Amino acid sequence: MSLLNSLYRRVGNNFPTNCSSLIKSVRYIGKNHKIMSDKSYRVLSIQSHVVHGYVGNKSATFPLQVLGFEVDAINSVQFSNHTGYKFIKGQVLDEKQLDDVFAGLVQNNLLDNYTHLLTGYIGNDQFLRKIADIVRKLREVNPNIVYVCDPVMGDNGEMYVPKTLLPIYRDEIIPLADICTPNQYEMELLTGHENIKTKEDTLKSLNWFHERGVNTVALSSTSLGTPDQLLAFLSHQTKDKQRQLFSLSIPKQGNGINFTGTGDLFASLFLAHSSLSANLQVAFENTIASLQAVISNTIAAMPSDLVRAGKIESRHRELKLVQSKNDIERPQVTLVAKPEH
Description:
The chain is an alpha/beta fold and 341 residues long. The protein is built from 12 helices and 12 strands. Helices cover 39% and strands 19% of the residues. Helix 5 (125-141) links the parallel strand 4 (116-119) and strand 5. Helix 3 (56-66) runs parallel beside helix 9 (262-276), helix 5 (125-141) runs parallel beside helix 6 (165-173) and helix 9 runs antiparallel to helix 10.
């Protein structure tokens, strides 16, 4: 737990308002008491965008900004709303248009601004291959840039991108990533370990990423918990091949209601917290704490009569991100990750 979290737990809403400078100085302190908030961060985020609702860049940008990160967004698609609605209108950015936008950043010598690259939903092969080129060009300018790859391909046993993207992610994109945030189904697709049913299966799959050079894998949830709980995993491999592994049990919320944009939110939160804290366990716990709070706030805002009648629509399930600003900025950790061996 960070020092600031500890202070908030002790004093609650009576935390003194004249301590803003203290907040900025000690917002995140890892287990080695290394202050991480004195650095400026800027993320190039390439993923989907919707006018209404929260998925992709719409889900990622606000939390990152709240946590002090500048965000430059390139929208792989611009849709009226996400695909859970009856009608969808909008445009898809192709690889030539992506190359054109990125060229403007190159020609204006802006690449050295970026500390992070975040990628999410991408819908075609050539666009995804262009991402690999972008990673390499960014690393030519800043070898220390952190690439967070959310390999958005599907969920609950169903792919919602062309199958031709899978080998490109597996063979060309994943080996370039520093951090990867797949869901269980995406991990099964990438590793070829279908129907992961045990912790041992999960550990083998997590190791697959490390074997390809990924330092950190954050698995937002799996079905390996109890009927009332999900199980999340965090695996980190150091340069000397030492392994840190944590699991975290998460109570299920919403009685089976599916929320869209939570994976995008998870990736952005983990990007931020893993940069702001020297302790990855703390980063993992803070990420889950904010995610759970957003889901809880979203459920609380749903019309109770429609919930009881089972008539909740997509518009009622849109994440309450703005209303969760305090929970994003000051996560209250109640779920603690435990080391796995």
